[in-house]
Amino acid sequence: MTSPPRAPAVQDPPAKFVYDFTEGHRGLSGLLGGKGANLAEMTRLGLPVPPGFTITTAACREYLRTGTPPPALRDEVSAHLDALERRTGRRLGRGADPLLVSVRSGAERSMPGMMDTVLNIGLSDTSVRSLAAQTGDERFAWDSYRRLVQMFGETVLGIEGDAFADRLADAVAQAGAADETGLAAGQLERLTRMFQDLVCERTGRPFPQDPREQLDLAVRAVFDSWNGPRARLYRRQERIPHHLGTAVSVCAMVFGNLGQDSGTGVAFTRDPATGQQGVYGDYLRNAQGEDVVAGIRNTVPLAALERLDPASYAELLRLMEVLENHYLDLCDIEFTIERGRLWMLQTRVGKRTAAAAFRIAVQLVDQGLIDEAEALRRVSGEQLAHLMFPRFDSGAAPAPLARGVAASPGAAVGVAVFDPARAVARAARGERVILVRRETTPDDLDGMIAAAGILTARGGKTSHAAVVARGMGRTCVCGAEELRVDHAARTATTADGTVVREGDVLSVDGTTGRVYRGEVPVVPSAVVEYFEGTAPPDADDLVAAVHRVMGWADAARRLGVRANADTAADAARARRFGARGIGLCRTEHMFLGERRALVERLILAEDDQGAQRALAALLPLQRADFRELFSAMDGLPVTVRLLDPPLHEFLPDLTDLSVRVALEHRDEDVRLLAAVRRLHEQNPMLGLRGVRLGLVVPGLFAMQVRAVAEAAAECRAAGGDPRPEIMIPLVGTVQELEIVREEAEEVIAAAAEAHGTRLDIPLGTMIELPRAALTAGQIAEHADFFSFGTNDLTQTVWGFSRDDVEASFFAAYLEKGIFGVSPFETIDTDGVGSLVRAAALAGRAARPGLKLGVCGEHGGDPDSVRFFHEVGLDYVSCSPFRIPVARLEAGRAATAAP
Amino acid sequence: MTSPPRAPAVQDPPAKFVYDFTEGHRGLSGLLGGKGANLAEMTRLGLPVPPGFTITTAACREYLRTGTPPPALRDEVSAHLDALERRTGRRLGRGADPLLVSVRSGAERSMPGMMDTVLNIGLSDTSVRSLAAQTGDERFAWDSYRRLVQMFGETVLGIEGDAFADRLADAVAQAGAADETGLAAGQLERLTRMFQDLVCERTGRPFPQDPREQLDLAVRAVFDSWNGPRARLYRRQERIPHHLGTAVSVCAMVFGNLGQDSGTGVAFTRDPATGQQGVYGDYLRNAQGEDVVAGIRNTVPLAALERLDPASYAELLRLMEVLENHYLDLCDIEFTIERGRLWMLQTRVGKRTAAAAFRIAVQLVDQGLIDEAEALRRVSGEQLAHLMFPRFDSGAAPAPLARGVAASPGAAVGVAVFDPARAVARAARGERVILVRRETTPDDLDGMIAAAGILTARGGKTSHAAVVARGMGRTCVCGAEELRVDHAARTATTADGTVVREGDVLSVDGTTGRVYRGEVPVVPSAVVEYFEGTAPPDADDLVAAVHRVMGWADAARRLGVRANADTAADAARARRFGARGIGLCRTEHMFLGERRALVERLILAEDDQGAQRALAALLPLQRADFRELFSAMDGLPVTVRLLDPPLHEFLPDLTDLSVRVALEHRDEDVRLLAAVRRLHEQNPMLGLRGVRLGLVVPGLFAMQVRAVAEAAAECRAAGGDPRPEIMIPLVGTVQELEIVREEAEEVIAAAAEAHGTRLDIPLGTMIELPRAALTAGQIAEHADFFSFGTNDLTQTVWGFSRDDVEASFFAAYLEKGIFGVSPFETIDTDGVGSLVRAAALAGRAARPGLKLGVCGEHGGDPDSVRFFHEVGLDYVSCSPFRIPVARLEAGRAATAAP
């Protein structure tokens, strides 16, 4: 047999490393970066974008791999540069009207720590004079050259910025000027020479005069900055792969600083704060973009441009409409007017507040621009959660005392306290406390727990204060850098000298990062009032928008949403918030308060009879609890988890009691101490709890199962429709479940018979140990449902005790980028998630139709909800307050772009 | 296109439910049970087996599935019964010479709690008379019938045994006889009638007179007994699937109780105690098999048969040789001589002591009967471990005071103490203590830790005492039921009234289960002396056998064996025992003793400088430790694990210190208490330890890495060949490893440069968290090796803190069959093992040739070693004492039948 002739080897055409702005489009952001792709898109739309081209991320990747730019890149850049020169009729850094270009980095996602921009590439000792002659503005030309040498020196050649800044300050001082704008052309020329000397001194080479060399070095510097330490850290934190690389856009310069008919500005197609359509933005006359960002000079509202340059203003409004109708969203635009001519330098879909997001999404639907599924993609559960916090009455708020990072949302009012011990003491006296610290450490934990709000002067979203506050649900503003905190003096001083002393009242807004002096009135969230049913769906336009979006989400979602609720009151609230059942009722909460004495009797019982008497006394109390709960959730499932925590949680603390016994020697304490010692565990999280307790303490689970069954029978007898489900916690192996299940079935059958009714009570298990997930197929054969306990699963998969590790090292881990986000906030899909996925598959394979839910706190976390949808769970269960968030995210997940 | 004509559907012949003894063979034990398969094998070999047939496990399974015997079974049994009657020339329970049969259960593995045997099926009010006439022995006939009614009543009809026993005792008393052998024929007849009345009274039906009905009921009872509670529990404990079912063998009766020319006995082809070839066993004249087992009458040594019945004796010896040459192993035989004719009733490969196992294996190789691979299969690591414990000098031992379950091996001598608190107190005074308890509970833990040996009167291998003692490595005998323990009186009394009082010396042999009064001299293990090199390989025949078997194992094994060793002394010992390197050096042990003060300084340091000074002081000490270790293992790898435990382990206990502060108010204690509180963790196992510590405490890991690198450089300078490997503990995510690795590489490079040498030190990680296993592919990209820390992995996969749970509920779990064996003893292949397997695969896929080891205690456990071999690890690492066991099991694993 002969094989067919092989096709001759064909060489792929070499990859194209450079795209003209006329070639790309916004779909190519992976290749051209966000900036490059949007420049290409605007060019494609016929908007006035200065001509230019983008060097692809592929070129960067090749550079990072080999250490040198790909050989083909030089020629491609030359070809595109020639084309650019032909189109503009100018030559880069040469001739009477020299072409200057900007070089800007642009990864798919913008990234702090990367080199951003070098402007005015092309200026040299020669071309600076041509520029002066051509523009007729010698000062402008030298200032541009001065800026190039400075920017190039800093970002491309790596000379520390202070060296330039010091020389600039000296020059300003010598000239007797107020600031650099007071320097004349000659002074700027001298300064530029000094900068060039500095470059030569530091690099051993003169400032490059060849414009192409400037360009190539700048491109290479952008590539290198991809691997700068801050960029690497940011990528670790954000889980952006290191291999992606950045693109580089090269764009012909236009100048907003060529006189009063020039200027630069930013514009938004809608108000990013409220979502209202209109003209929003700022404009700065006779200035370059960096001046707007630097905030050196005062901008005017964009509307003022109508008076200053009506033609450009009208053109800008027209282009804004083009962009919004094209992007179908709020656009954020940078523009420059050069001597009366409008140029678009950048656009992107704009950031917005939570309220604006909901309003804009609904408006766009009403305008027929997007459909409801797209509207769901335009809002997020996190935004909805922000709208649900009480907030300060903005009308009544004074000017903020300070601003910091909005680290953990909420509105907290209290007296400033500068020391954790005093925070505990004052809180114990009933005061509401704001703990103010330079930064927090694990030693501050008690104080943080006692405080209503936390304010720090240092640290960002991943600082200890931020991480711990979020974990505990405390309001927190951190990194309010204008505050000088003096722990010894117990004061915080603002930049303008205002002093906050211990005991002064502060209002801390963890949603906006603002801090106010005095008590700012708190207004409840209208959105929550709407969910509670105390405000109508048309209470205001925000509520109306939320109402409609929630309707779309509920219609779209496939995931059910249940509540974690232990009391009838919580259950009723959850139901108002849209829960369709209870996914987790923790029975341990029913053993607290006065009942603790009964549990103590159970634990201290000397024989089995004593223990059974204690259980018998608990039975009617539990039964009554369940009856109330089933009534509150009548007609909907209520998943009751049998007792989970170790018994010693119901007894006094070992250390406290030991000290008391040592000091007071009371007989009853001595006896109690013996029991506490006996039950003491090194690692109670990994000890005698959950199903283990049920297997070791005779009658405990049977009592609970009986209480559930009898409560159900009684509710039914009273005309109700109780739907209990019983969940067995901490199962690690199917044998545990088999034994408990057998006993539970007997107890239920006996209760049903005694009440003359039929009780179909599903018996399921938590999957909260790695072993349960790994053997889910075996366990499913004896379980009517699985509920993933992702809190405990996270603890065991990572080997973390949440109580211990959040305070001790999570902040360090987030700062080093070891975590992108705490795995207790958002499910760790690689680790914990992979077990959930595998267990769901194995469980359903062993028992088709097995009901799958999740009842860890992740059930109310937006990103996690999307994961649970994707994995195919039937429902999530979360705290009542989080239910709307879960509903929304479940709807979004169901409409996610594939 | 036409498809080829299909073959006409052929119906499978119906499954065959009954095999004649002439049809099966020993390979069919899954179908015929162990007993049935061996009866068939002996029949096939032409040995004199009474004819019979076996009902298969398939029939049982069908019965268990449907609740009734398969319809075809009745006819098949009839056909085989007909054949049996034809062959014997007798009819079941009919005629002048009625055929009687035995019905015996026989699963693939023998199983306590299942119905065992019913003899004499076929006897009825009619046939008993024929039997009397035929044998000429009326007493024999009625005694046989009495036994049938009793056995049938108890095991088939479920009447409690006491009801029969009471009537029997009454009859003996009325007859004025010493025991039942004193009853005459008439008395036995009356007793039989009374038994029949009892049956009728209890079951409402007369004792069945139809022999076939007797047979069918007995078969059904055997089937039912498969699901008896004890059998189910045993299967749960032993992980035998519930669906297998049992076979039933039906065999023509032969009688050893037909006079002085009859008898019954057991024989072994070799001495099961020593392995010596010869004639071993017991014989009982004029008796049935059950009499031998019951021990009612005294047996004679088998050799006596030569005098009593030389022909049968010679025949027996011949058959024993046939069997041994056929089974190629020690055979354990049951036989009966009926009026001078020898019948073989059962054979199986016999149990033997550890010493016998080694001797027999070597002998069989020398006889050319088996090869070396087969010899390895004939011994086990557990047997070798038993040979390595010191033992009591059997020559010097008195008669045992009591016997119990050999629960945890070893030979312990000490004073009897009956209370855990006093055990602690006496041990603190330096006494060696044997804790004697009725049974132990978690409250006894302190006393168990303090004791050299533990002795209980109740409980088996899975009792609390046994489980905890094995976990702690304490010698333990439990369930010594002849002892009455009186805790209040502090005495233990034997059946013969001997009283042991507190303070009396006891010697407890945990390897044999024997307990002696007084101090029995302990002799060291000759096998250990051989491994230590202090005894030659030919010290005695046992040592010689072990020496040869170890040679075969080493030649066969693919797994490397390393030691867990922290000191040069341990390393040297491990090397003598055959370790080829250290797989785990725990550096925390180097921080104890006087150095604890330095660690305390590190922890209490008020600033970074203080901490760095403390680290600097530790550096030379660590370096010296490593130098010694590398020298002891010169030329072999030494894996150093960086500091793992939480820092507070180096500080005083929180509760103790709190009490001291409350009572004494010393300033230095107050300061220390603040640090202890700060570092206190709810669940230290899941807290700030391992790599987390390395990332949070600046300079800690760097100091350790530097000590390793400098020690290696110094050893090399001194002409040595140090081969350190550095292992990073508790990694959960690759980011942790990346950061630590980067720092370590810098430190190593700096040390190498400073010493003018090259240092290639592999950097690897423990895989001891589920998340590390689940993301092993990512981690492997930054790890030179993996070492599975299966102790911690077991703790997190199951959510067990070993310190807490072994005492609190493992005994209950083993007793309920939730565990077959503690997952800390033998790796849990379904859970922990599945992660090890997946991580090994993912790691090697990401980094081909990645070196994989295990350093948990499972590395020295026989079953676990086989698993690690199967998963493809490169080495196991275990405590020095376990190294020979690991070597042997690694060799066995490599030669395991596929």
From TrEMBL, chains A, B:
Q: What class of enzyme is it?
A: transferase
* UniProt binding sites for Mg(2+): E768, D792
Query: Any idea where the PEP-utilising enzyme mobile domain is?
Result: 431-513
Does tRNA-binding appear among the keywords?
no
Q: Which catalytic residues are annotated?
A: H464 (tele-phosphohistidine intermediate), C855 (proton donor)
The record lists substrate as bound by R586, R641, E768, G789, T790, N791, D792
Entry annotated with the keyword Nucleotide-binding: yes
Ranges for domain PEP-utilising enzyme C-terminal come to: 546-891
Q: Which GO terms describe its molecular function?
A: ATP binding; kinase activity; metal ion binding; pyruvate, phosphate dikinase activity
For the Pyruvate phosphate dikinase AMP/ATP-binding domain, which residue ranges apply?
Answer: 70-298, 308-356
Which InterPro entries does the annotation name?
Answer: ATP_grasp_subdomain_1 (IPR013815), PEP-util_enz_mobile_dom (IPR008279), PEP_util_AS (IPR018274), PEP_util_C (IPR000121), Phosphohistidine_dom_sf (IPR036637), PPDK_AMP/ATP-bd (IPR002192), Pyruvate_phosphate_dikinase (IPR010121), Pyrv/PenolPyrv_kinase-like_dom (IPR015813)
Q: E.C. number, please?
A: 2.7.9.1
Q: Which cofactor does it need?
A: Mg(2+)
Q: Which reaction does it catalyse?
A: pyruvate + phosphate + ATP = phosphoenolpyruvate + AMP + diphosphate + H(+)
Q: Which Pfam families match?
A: PEP-utilizers, PEP-utilizers_C, PPDK_N
* Keyword annotations: ATP-binding, Kinase, Magnesium, Metal-binding, Nucleotide-binding, Pyruvate, Transferase
Protein family membership: Belongs to the PEP-utilizing enzyme family.
| NCBIfam families reported in the protein's UniProt record | PRK05878.1 (NF004531), pyru_phos_dikin (TIGR01828)
What protein name does the entry list? Pyruvate, phosphate dikinase
What's the source species for this entry?
Answer: Streptomyces marincola
